[in-house]
Amino acid sequence: MSTLQAGTAPAAAGPSVPRRGRGLLRRTIFHNATLAAGSLLILLVVIIAIVVPLVSPGGATALHPAASLTGPSGSYLLGTDQLGRDLLTRVAAGYRISLEVSLGSVGLALLLGVPLGLLAAMGPRRLGGMIMRLLDVLMAFPALLLAIVVVAMAGTGTGVLLLAIGIVYIPVVARVMRAAALNTSKEPFVEAARARGATFGRLVLRHVAPNSLGPVVVQASILMAVSILLEAALSFIGLGVQPPTPSLGLMLSSGRDFMASSPWVVADPGVAIVIVVLGFTLIGDGLQDWLDPKKRVIGR
Amino acid sequence: MSDDRPDQRGQGSQPRPEALLRLHQVRKEFPRRRVLGRPARGDDAGVLVAVRDVSLDVARGETLSVVGESGSGKSTLGRIILGLMEPTSGTVEFGGRDITALRGASRRALSRDIQVIFQDPYASLNPRQRVEDVIREPLDIHRVGDPSGRLHRAHELMDRVALPARYRRAYPHELSGGLRQRVGIAAALALDPKVIVADEPVSALDVSVQAQILDLLAELRQQMSLTMVFISHDLGVVHQISDRVAVLCQGELIEIGPAEALYAAPQHPYTKALLSAIPPADPAVRYDPIAIGEAKHVPEADPGCRFRPRCWLAEPICADVAPALSPRPSGVRAHCHISERAPLTIG
Amino acid sequence: MTMLEVTNLTVRYRGAERLAVDQVSFTLGPGEVLGIVGESGSGKTTLAMALLGLLPPGAQVAGSVRFDGQDLLRSSEKQLRKLRGSQISAIMQNASTALNPSFTIGSQLIALLRRHRRLSRQQARAEAVSWLGKVGIPAPESKLSFYPHQLSGGMNQRVVIAMALALQPRMVLADEPTSALDVTVQAAVLSLLRTLIDDSASAMALITHDLGVVAQMCTQVVVMNGGVVVESGPVSELFVAARHEYTRRLLASLPGRRPRPSSLHPAGGST
């Protein structure tokens, strides 16, 4: 059925297409409430991670045995743990680790996953098949298990953690990239470019990739959230970051014994995790809304 | 294969001297996938013949329209000409050169000579490319001139297709269907091609816009001495712009000839039915479409005319012997026993 | 009182600047076939949705759409549901998407019959077969168990027509019913539609962009452009003496009415 165009110009084809004129902010970050909320949460996290250590450098590991297990107060905004360490600075430091690990691992997954996915979609059929089978094998391992194996082989530490989680996510990214690229490759404009003599490289880089990164970005933001959980889990069981470096997971684990009497020791890192994970998840959801319904131009 | 010179009918097949593009016995088969539970389609469940041994040629400077309904194979044929698809058998010649088997760089080089205008103006432009970049891209790909020269040429082309300069840096979604199609046309003209294959270029546009685009194409064709292959399902639309018309039915070329002759006195029952099916935009004119059934699958082994199940003129010979594309006094060639004996009358 | 009376209908979508439909008025009586002509953006689809009570939430509406005196715009969903299918039915453009792909066409047709009429399963089945035959589907009994994807577009559209007419509605709204079909199939479907409408004394509102279809199917016509009715009247008048400039432009762009460019390539024998 022929559809109606509201207003004089056809609706936008997709948000990532830059629009001229004002309202850029409203068209991007504040596009919908979910995206805005998620962005604000992450902004909060980033501010805490950056600002707090500047205010009290070294505070994350400074021991104040006299003030151990004190609740939130004027001098210790989030209270202290069993060794008298200020929990606010520890949470801030923990945030830094979390952000490092999540950015790093997702970055690695994108770095390798995107080209693999594109190759699988656009390259020779057999190569694509081999790539996907290889990735299938990788995906068959539960994330946690795979991470444990990598850590067991390469030792602990932030760098290794990053690598482990990144490896686990490569197949996920590649799969999403491949599906999106496959879809886009069937669009008439790709065929048109091919008919005009475009080489493989140009087709992929200029036509297919830019128009299929949407789902990948959404997936990436969700992976950010999950990677933080994964890092926390690994640290919790002792395979991640090692003490005294604060990681949110580690804080949870070491605070377990004092949960009943001093709940803030566990609540602080717990809530901190929730905030950052929620933030990324909301961004992911918001991005999905942003991309989906406006994907196709409304027209005749 | 002279088909429209009345003085040459009856002579053996002579390729017309100025044929720029020639298709010879082009056939395209697709493997048919059997889906569990669906009734098997007879004995040849293996392949679907989309294009069946089609031979035709296009002279330099002429506009040949390839007309057919869905399933006729016209789009497949278009893709084969453009090299986007390989024929299962048969050849495509351009300027006397066999281009069927060309791949890679040599095929890409050919895109300078044979260009395409696609159907869907909404989907045939990269949403992330500005208008001037879309038009410039073919020049970039083939490294024509220098970068600034290419931009200039893109702007020139925009003028040529009457695209206002204010749209130079616009994105496709900011333009209406008709304007987008102009962008597509400009991009097709960028390399100064010899042949343009237009695949349903106006089907997705509003009626009033269709007229504008067709006029534009006619004008450009004139100015640039283009050779055009115009693919369409709409016989009404192609009447304006065609020198010759080829009609495809279920993959077969069933009639081909000068536009006027074909419209005035079609010599194949299908063409006749197709023309009669167009509702006349005049309430005073009686609408009496000839009833032919929907396309039916005819087994590969069938020796006779494949249109027979739908034909109201069919006679016994039609079941036993397949017709050949043979000339008629009016100048068209038709694939029909009945009209071979006695030309079909109008009405 | 005319069966359908649309008076000053105005529709604005949520967040839109301009009106989708602007003060549109027309009437439709029994036995009439009204053509609603327009291109994209003319408001014809919005008009169709308004007539069926299917406008999206948030759309602002003014004016009235009276069917047998009852204002559809101010009726409850419950009241509308009673009307839909039995009094007012619709034929949409793309038949294959109008039918539920997960159910056989037989079950969909039978379900429709049983929902609005008190028929036993046997009776409904027999009706369904009869209707499939009426719309020209060969071997109708066997087709009952077919799924939409097993039939061609033309066949599916016939099924949709059967579903639209089976309950003998007073009014049928057809929105570009043949635009997605091949021209030979369109011809057959239009003939069918014409016959059935003539036989049933239902009225039809036929939305189309094709003036040929209007000329052959309609008695009255309304031309829309930019949400506004620019011309209306009997069909014969429109084609002979169109008053509005837009209508004349539409007529002028019809293929048959434009001069063939004289200087075409003289490809051996052609003019």
Structural write-up:
The complex is a heterotrimer of chains A (300), B (347) and C (271). Chain A is mainly alpha-helical and 300 residues long. Chain A has one domain (49-291): MetI-like fold (Orthogonal Bundle). Helix content of chain A is 67%, strand content 0%. Chain A has helices at 24-27, 33-55, 87-122, 125-140, 143-154, 158-185, 188-195, 200-236, 248-255, 264-291. In chain A, helix 5 (143-154) packs across helix 6 (158-185). Chain A starts with 23 loop residues before the first helix and ends in a 9-residue tail after the last helix. Residues 1-19 and 294-300 of chain A have low confidence and may be disordered. With 347 residues, chain B is α/β, with parallel strands linked by helices. Chain B is built from eleven helices and twelve strands. Chain B folds into two domains: 19-113 and 193-341, Rossmann fold, CATH 3.40.50.300; 124-192, no CATH class. Chain B has helices at 74-82, 104-110, 131-141, 147-160, 177-189, 207-224, 235-241, 259-264, 269-277, 316-320, 337-341; strands at residues 19-31, 47-59, 63-67, 89-94, 97-98, 114-117, 195-199, 227-232, 244-249, 252-258, 326-327, 333-334. In chain B, strands 6-7-8-3-9-10-12-11 form an eight-stranded mixed β-sheet, with helices on both faces. A four-stranded antiparallel β-sheet of chain B has the order 2-1-4-5, with helices on one face. With 271 residues, chain C is α/β, with parallel strands linked by helices. Chain C folds into two domains: 1-87 and 170-255, Rossmann fold, CATH 3.40.50.300; 95-168, no CATH class. Chain C has helices at 44-52, 77-83, 95-98, 105-116, 121-134, 140-143, 153-165, 183-200, 211-217, 235-240, 245-252; strands spanning 4-12, 21-28, 33-37, 60-67, 70-71, 88-91, 171-175, 203-208, 220-225, 228-234. A six-stranded mixed β-sheet of chain C has the order 6-7-8-3-9-10, with helices on both faces. Chain C has a four-stranded antiparallel β-sheet with strand order 2-1-4-5, covered by helices on one side. In chain C, helix 5 (121-134) crosses helix 7 (153-165) and helix 7 (153-165) runs parallel beside helix 8. Residues 262-271 of chain C have low confidence and may be disordered. Chains A and B meet through helix 7 and helix 8 of A and helix 2, helix 3 and helix 5 of B.
